[in-house]
Design a protein that fits this description.
The protein is of the alpha/beta class. It is built from 16 helices and 15 strands. Strands 8-9-7-6-5-4-3-2-10 form a 9-stranded mixed beta sheet, sandwiched between helices. Strands 1-13-12-11 form a 4-stranded antiparallel beta sheet, with no helix packed on it. Strands 14-15 form a two-stranded antiparallel ribbon. Strand 6, helix 7 and strand 7 form a beta-alpha-beta unit.
């Protein structure tokens, strides 16, 4: 089942934002995330806030969901205007889930139109939806492209049938190149998502998946080590001894193979788990999360952030529908980050990206740790020393990416 929401301070029913979020807002990019909480099948590894038809119960209509999400977006625009936030066009939009493409393409187009009506969409904006390879066809993708979508992120996960079966994925490996070609035919950029370290997956299996992914020449690729989340089907199977636990050493070998293969194919890593063919095809929406920009998250369980204020919506689609029907904020709780918490979070996130974290922004203790991190081969020495006049920055080496928690711990301890 989906993970529980974090604790926080009660969120006001009218969604009112504190004055503190206004400071510096004109210099921060603004994006929108739309959560679509529906899946045809719950994958055994997933603890995201998603539901199959049998899990929903009464009072939550998939058919009426797009109208509810659009209503929240209008509500959010009003809240932001009341708070005195400056007018900002939306620079990135991301539809995630769940499987957004379980909704009709016209529903996604309608929600995007509401975003355009309320805030405007900046020229050259990145507009993405996630999709399962078996949830779209060329006609569906053409409708998205006509509506203003620019990018589709396919959940490929693996090219090996027994790995897909362990993950409870419903598509076949043969479906991926079909939908990639269909997306390109209508002018959409393509990203592929992979998972490595699935129980029973060998290094040869992983190489086969990488070969298949690269054969599609995606504009962008994300690859994540499988994490076994408590309460998931896969966690129960491991506990009962039905499948083996993931092997950390094998995870590391798989990551090293991934990095080598992506580099050889002409892709650059720009975040620990993400590679792009060019700087222009990086996921700008995800970069906005890692660099602390502003975004409004619409939908059940969606998280939002404005100037150090973070809040999250009620989790169940039924509770969400009730709030929207009453004209109330769907926010469940919120948290105003302290300066110390914002610094720690910034170090945690920005040391994951290729552009790095500026050393001048570290605490004195953090600055003292830099020499040791260089000596241990965890951060790039030239970047840290600011060679050729560049701003000195913390940029992880390959070893540092594998030991990212160690790097952050040394900078913050």
């Amino acid at each position: 089942m989906p993970s529980v929401l974090p604790d926080g301070e009660p969120a006001p029913a009218d969604g009112a934002l504190p004055e503190s979020v206004v400071a510096g807002a004109a210099d921060r990019a603004f994006g929108v995330y739309v959560h679509v909480p529906y899946c045809r099948v719950r994958c055994g590894y997933c603890d995201f806030n998603t539901y199959t038809a049998s899990e929903l119960g009464g009072g939550a209509s998939q058919a009426g969901y797009a109208a509810e999400a659009a209503r929240e977006l209008s509500f959010g625009a009003g809240v932001m205007r009341t708070a005195g936030l400056p007018d900002r066009e939306v620079s990135t939009v991301f539809f995630g889930g769940g499987t957004p493409t379980l909704l009709p393409a016209s529903d996604l187009a309608m929600v995007l139109a509401r975003i355009r009506d309320e805030w405007g969409i900046a020229p050259g904006a990145e507009v993405t939806t996630e999709a399962n390879p078996d949830s779209v066809d060329e006609a569906y993708l053409a409708t998205l492209a006509e509506a203003g979508f620019t990018r589709v992120s396919f959940g490929m996960q693996s090219a090996v049938p027994h790995v897909l079966a362990t993950l409870d994925r419903t598509h076949t490996p043969e479906r991926v190149p079909v939908v990639v070609e269909a997306a390109r035919a209508v002018g959409l950029q393509v990203s592929l998502d992979l998972i490595y370290g699935t129980p029973g997956e060998s290094l040869a299996d992983w190489e086969r998946s990488l070969d298949a992914a690269l054969a599609n020449a995606p504009d962008h690729l994300s690859a994540y080590a499988l994490i076994i989340e408590a309460g998931t089907k896969l966690a129960g199977q491991i506990r009962r001894g039905q499948v083996a636990e993931p092997d950390d050493d094998l995870h590391a070998e798989m990551y090293e193979m991934l990095d080598a293969r992506m580099s050889a194919a002409g892709y650059d890593w720009y975040e620990i788990s993400n590679w792009s063919r060019t700087p222009e095809t990086r996921s700008r929406h995800n970069l906005s999360y890692w660099t602390g920009e502003d975004w409004w998250g619409a939908g059940p369980g969606a998280h939002s952030h404005m100037g150090g204020l973070r809040w999250w919506n009620v989790k169940h689609p039924r509770a969400y529908a009730e709030r929207m029907g009453q004209g109330l904020s769907p926010a469940h709780a919120r948290e105003l980050l302290t300066a110390e918490a914002r610094h720690s979070e910034r170090v945690l996130l920005e040391t994951r990206i290729r552009d790095g974290f500026p050393i001048e922004a570290l605490s004195e203790h953090g600055k003292q740790a830099v020499a040791g991190l260089i000596a241990d081969g965890l951060i790039e020495g030239r970047a840290a020393l600011g060679v050729q006049g560049a701003q000195p920055r913390i940029v992880p080496t390959l070893r540092g990416r594998l030991l990212a928690d160690t790097v952050v711990g040394k900078l913050l301890e």
